[in-house]
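Ticket #4471: structure export looks truncated?
Reporter: QA, pipeline team
Priority: medium

Steps to reproduce: submit the single chain below to the structure queue and open the exported record.
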Amino acid sequence: MTEKVFDVVGIGNAIVDILSHADDAFLAAHGLARGAMTLIDADRASALYRAMGPSVESSGGSAANTIAGVASLGGRGAFIGKVNNDQFGGVFRHDIRASGVVFETPSSEEGPPTARCLIFVTNDAQRTMQTYLGACLELGPEDVDPLVISHAKVTYLEGYLWDPPRAKQAFIKAAEIARNAGHKVALTLSDPFCVDRHRAEFQQLVEKHVDILFANENEICSLWQTDRFDEALQATRGKCEVAALTRSARGSIIVAGDELHVVDAAPVPHVIDTTGAGDLYAAGFLFGYTAGKPPYECARIGALAAAEVISHFGARPQTPLTELLLAEMR
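Actual output as written to the record:
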């Protein structure tokens, strides 16, 4: 494994996604903040799991979804994240390896069970996420393999990982190894509430350690404490090599040095589930970036990958993205 050169290695929360349809009455009855991601404990996770309707279970987590997307595009990806040696841990390990991603982080033999994210999708394709981090909290710097990081063109880090203290240490270790090896570091801000909790530290990271930044409209506005997207965009200029700022149906804006690229969203006949849209956008962008494509083209591939994942239920591609990319190039 260590002799292999990776396009992207992702470090993040290894989570099993449990997706189910729900209506607003269900969200209200269970006190769920519509459209948000909320961290919950084991008891709350068990109670919601019993209450939810029929579900689909698969490996998930933001960075893991992105690396699976890179693999679906034909890229070489690896993932670092912590699971327990339990049933959900087996689901995660099988799914991510089956997607073509190298995943060799040792499982925990004791301690908290594997993390899970209960995702309630309403009829407007909005998702409300209740996340029990479980074994994710056990990720530490000892789980970061320096040879894997030093063999990756880009090390991709998810903002959610900044919550657990030992995972934060793993985050910093990986970033330093990547930079010392002359490779790039990418960060996704993950969630505006995550940015609210760690704003000052994230600002410092972006300015000093991050080459490629991913954020949606709410996240970038939270980072620079403004209600106006244009102001947040201007505040981002010069802070990192490339910033990819997504705006849902309005596409994305790429800030790359003095360049500014406005890229339309790819057409989607019917949006079914927005889970994983940002993750797959990052996958497409990083695939293009590691292939040496210009920022505008990277964003177009990102839009294509995002369009595929929101056209069906679940956060991983159902159609190999290589096929869609080839069709787009014809």
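Status: closed, not a bug. The export was complete when the record was re-opened. Leaving a note from the reviewer for reference: Residues 16 and 185 are 25 Å apart (CA to CA).
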